[in-house]
Amino acid sequence: MAVSFLKGRIRFDRNELAGSFGDIGTDLPLIIGMILACKLDPASSLIMFGAMQVFTGLLYGLPMPVQPLKAMAVIMISQKLTGNVLYGAGLAIGVTMLVLSATGLLSLLSRLIPLCVVRGIQLGLGLSLATLALKTYVGADGAEGYVLAGVCFLIILFLLGSRKYPAALAVMALGTLWAVAFKLDIYKIGQSLGVSLPAFHVPAPGDVWQGLLTLALPQIALSLSNSIIATKQTVGDLFPDRRISIRKIGLTYSFMNLVNPFLSGIPTCHGAGGMAGHYAFGARTGGSILIYGSLFLTLGLFFSKGFSDVVQVFPLPVLGVVLVFEGITLMSFVKDIAGSKSDLLVALVVALCCLGLPNGFAIGLVVGTAVAYLIKGNLLRVR
After folding, report:
1. Cα–Cα distance measured from residue 10 to residue 22, given in angstroms and rounded to the nearest whole number
2. What is the pLDDT of residues 187-212, one digit of tens each?
3. pTM for this one?
4. CA separation for the pair 321, 155 (Å, rounded)
5. Can you give the chain as a three-state secondary structure string?
6. pLDDT above 90: residue 287
């Protein structure tokens, strides 16, 4: 029965392997930043992140991503908060999402939010990812990094969409050769070898409360817009024959964050950008997510003792180029509303809010929905 369930849902080939790298440009820098800035346990963080990828890949049979909670990650890195607060926040948002999913409130919210608002969120997220990549990653290694990024960009442009020669494999191979030639220290890598396991942790009530106020509340609106609603829409865009409910996405989001805190794992979510990235580079089944998760499991189980040395090996400009194309894929979804001036206006307003305002995803979600209903009720005219 297990074999028949997985048939067609899990595949391992060069395209799934290529697609598995489609979200690494988003995930890896946030995970590294939290581990180093907040002194999190590398083994627990990497192992649990990988385990949740494997869980999601098997459950959905799609390139359904698992990502760090972005708003939480940014606040953690900027304020250098402790891991205890992070784990408390993870438990708080897990319980919150469980209540929203189980009561049907999540499904109700998704029905009230118009498609043009979701497209605006996807557009804004795509612009945000591309901007981050160009400002932070592409120039990270100076002039040589720009050259490397330019070569990778041309490779992806030339091979994108090829099932025979997957673009991501070529780019990752080039990045690996670059690392071996200029950054790899075999002695340090050898010293990092050793078996590690996740650390058990019970969040204290005070940490759950502080995490809720400091981290979970700023995250919830972003999660509703991108991790839940936009992800469901992206599944429908890319896999129209697969029916995935808002409730199911909310429940798996909840499950991950009810488990992660007790094993010192970072809070995680799904994400429209991650799915777009995996798909853009060739992924069509949960196999890509299993491969991706296995990478983090391997790093956590066997290489976490020298984590700070290992993570500096792979060149950031390569990750930046991958991130740019992830953003472009997300932005391209806006084309299906381009024929409606009013819908396009709403999408642009939402995208600008997401890109330019603090808590922009929350503001864009509310403002865009209000504008869309005003236009629909003829209280606001678009000429």
Report:
1. 17
2. 666 666 778 899 999 999 999 999 98
3. 0.79
4. 10
5. CHHHHHCCCCCCCHHHHHHCCCCHHHHHHHHHHHHHHHCCCHHHHHHHHHHHHHHHHHHHCCCCCCEECHHHHHHHHHHCCCHHHHHHHHHHHHHHHHHHHHHCHHHHHHHHCCHHHHHHHHHHHHHHHHHHHHHHHCCCCHHHHHHHHHHHHHHHHHHCCCCCCCHHHHHHHHHHHHHHHHCCCHHHHHHCCCCCCCCCCCCCHHHHHHHHHHHHHHHHHHHHHHHHHHHHHHHHHHCCCCCCCHHHHHHHHHHHHHHHHHHCCCCEECCHHHHHHHHHCCCCCCHHHHHHHHHHHHHHHHCHHHHHHHCCCCCHHHHHHHHHHHHHHHHHHHHHHCCCHHHHHHHHHHHHHHHHCCCHHHHHHHHHHHHHHHHHCCCCCCC
6. yes
Burial class, 157, CB count within 10 angstroms (exposed 0-12 / middle 13-18 / buried 19+): exposed
Strand pairing partners for 68? 268
Contacts of 29 (CB under 8 A, 6+ apart): 136, 137, 316, 319
Question: Does 230 score more than 70 pLDDT?
Answer: yes
Q: Is residue 363 within 8 Å of residue 357, measured between CB atoms?
A: yes
Task: Give tens-digit pLDDT for 163-187.
Answer: 777 777 888 888 878 877 776 666 6
Asked whether residue 1 carries a pLDDT value surpassing 50, the answer given is no
Q: How many residues does the chain have?
A: 383
Q: Is the pLDDT of residue 149 over 60?
A: yes
Domain positions in the chain are: 2-115+133-329
